[in-house]
Amino acid sequence: MSVTRSAVTGVGSYLPETIVTNADLSKFVDTSDEWIVERTGIRQRHKAREDQPTSDLAVEAARKALADAGRTPADVDLIIVATTTPDMTFPATAAIVQRKLGVGVCPAFDVQAVCSGFVYALSVADGFVARGLSRCALVIGAEEMTRLMDWDDRTTCVLFGDGAGAVVMEPREGQGTKADQGLLGFALRCDGNKADLLYVDGGPSTTGTVGHLRMSGNQVFRHAVINIAEAITAAARAANIEIADVDWFVPHQANQRIIKGVGDRLGLDETKVISTVATHANTSAASIPLALDAAIRDGRIKRGDLVLMEAMGGGLTWGACALRL
Ligand code: UT7
């Protein structure tokens, strides 16, 4: 049976120049490189300049993804930005990216699912591309999480960083089998009853401020390990693949212990798991495309590989998706 799949035809990413090490943080908050590395695996994070909004990071990543796909802004007919740190309350960061890239009139909007945003955005783009409503979609995860930090709160400010990753999605004809190029299946979840475990204590209709990130780290950790594993299993089932078929796991980069915990639960081969948490820290919706791009650039992930992505974040949201590059 012939089916139209939405395929990733280009990948790009961008990290702001400034690097903040654990030692830098320990100069103004009561923490240590030893604690951060042992509990999270994080060694450094990137931080955007004051005059560099989220859309600038998104545009840099998008340009690289378009070049990788052999496309130009003139080809783009859909822009989805997954972000929880928009430039402004409105317009959507996607609209700003559209203007900065010089893309013509087309649908452009943001997806807000916090750290799961990129997995959510891919599934939304799939709805356009696989139905013939888009022939060249830009799906971007872009975040400046450092803007949401309470720099006096050592339990959160050491965990996050800034960055952006982007993919180009285009239709490809397949046979409806797991050998097809493109998105094969996904599983998305949200449990709003757990919203107070991870949130930002501000907003336009409550405090009128941006607010700061608050997290009950321990409880989020436990939720992550158990539920991400379930979502991975569900996404694999939806894609009609076995976990053993997967060439590469590209997890959300929140904590090396979560990545390991999920891997252990599912019996994943550690050498197939991409980890950039040490150098990128948690960049929320940007973390998966940043890790994907890093592993493509260093030659590990190749065209034709079966990739499984997973994430969990505020909402609480979580999810997973399987795609063949
Ligand atoms: O992407 C969104 C999803 N977010 C996540 O997935 C994050 C999930 N949670 C985590 O990654 C971990 O729970 C943390 C890294 C946030 C914390 O690690 P933990 O092993 O769960 O530590 P804990 O919260 O149980 O804290 C242990 C101790 C506490 O001290 P006491 O009460 O035992 O004396 C904390 O006050 O570590 C202390 N602590 C720190 N010490 C030095 C907490 N943060 C720090 C710090 N430096 N930065």
Can you walk through the features of this model?
With 325 residues, this protein is α/β, with parallel strands linked by helices. The protein has 2 domains: 3-174, Thiolase/Chalcone synthase (Peroxisomal Thiolase, Chain A, domain 1); 182-324, Thiolase/Chalcone synthase (Peroxisomal Thiolase, Chain A, domain 1). 32% of the residues lie in helices and 26% in strands. It is built from 10 helices and 13 strands. The strands form 4 sheets. The protein has a 5-stranded mixed β-sheet, sandwiched between helices. β4, α4 (93-101) and β5 form a beta-alpha-beta unit. α7 (217-239) packs across α8 (256-266). The longest helix has 23 residues, at 217-239. The chain is globular. The two termini are 20 Å apart. The model has no long low-confidence stretch (mean pLDDT 97). The protein binds oxa(dethia)-CoA (UT7). Oxa(dethia)-CoA is lined by residues 31, 35-36, 39-40, 115, 154-155, 158, 217-218, 220-221, 224, 254-255, 258, 282, 312-313.
